[in-house]
């Protein structure tokens, strides 16, 4: 039967052997002396790689992804407007022009559905995302579209008693 004393001795021996296995006189290898980037630096590097990838994926017309949903492009535009990417101006100008091209007479910023899944629609979602992206990019140049989009969205609000009139 083991006693508390023998357990402590066993732990002490194992710890001593573990420490003895590490030679304190060996010089550290290059990997251990290289400065590890901080979490903030790693995050910045990741964002830069992501923006570089987005830039490379942007289509000639300024869009990304499914062109039937301008919000997809607006999300990438929004990310670029908040960055210091070296190609920010060109990327944002093309994307904002693409998004603004979906402005409808009713004030929304979307592509009307033409039938079937994936053909457009989602007017409230697309308008909300596009409005925010245009506001973040250049609220002065796109002021009229932003105000019309805001009115469009307000017209789709519901209260506790039903649609807002």
List descriptors:
mainly alpha; two-stranded antiparallel ribbon; 165 residues
Tell me about this structure.
Helix 4 (70-81) packs antiparallel against helix 5 (88-100) and helix 5 (88-100) packs antiparallel against helix 6 (123-138). The chain has helices spanning 4-20, 30-33, 39-57, 70-81, 88-100, 123-138, 143-154, and strands at residues 158-159, 162-163. A hairpin with a 2-residue loop joins strand 1 and strand 2. The longest helix has 19 residues, at 39-57. The chain is built from seven helices and two strands; from the N terminus they run αααααααββ. The radius of gyration is 28 Å and the shape is elongated. The chain has a domain at 63-157. The chain starts with a helix and ends with a strand. It is mainly α and 165 residues long. A two-stranded antiparallel ribbon has the order 1-2.
In short:
The chain is mainly alpha-helical and 165 residues long. The protein has 7 helices and 2 strands, in the order αααααααββ.
């Amino acid at each position: 039967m083991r006693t508390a004393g023998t357990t402590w001795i066993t732990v002490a021996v194992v710890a001593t052997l573990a420490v003895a296995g590490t030679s304190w006189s060996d010089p550290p290898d290059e990997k251990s002396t290289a400065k590890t980037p901080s979490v903030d630096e790693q995050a910045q590097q990741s964002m830069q790689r992501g923006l570089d990838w987005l830039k490379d994926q942007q289509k000639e017309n300024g869009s990304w992804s499914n062109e039937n949903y301008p919000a997809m492009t607006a999300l990438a535009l929004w990310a670029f407007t908040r960055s210091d990417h070296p190609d920010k101006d060109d990327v944002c100008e093309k994307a904002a022009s693409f998004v603004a091209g979906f402005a409808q007479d009713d004030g929304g910023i979307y592509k009307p559905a033409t039938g079937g899944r994936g053909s457009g629609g989602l007017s409230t979602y697309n308008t909300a995302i596009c409005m925010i992206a245009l506001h973040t990019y250049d609220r002065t140049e796109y002021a009229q579209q932003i105000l019309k989009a805001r009115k469009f969205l307000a017209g789709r609000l519901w209260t506790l008693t039903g649609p807002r009139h």
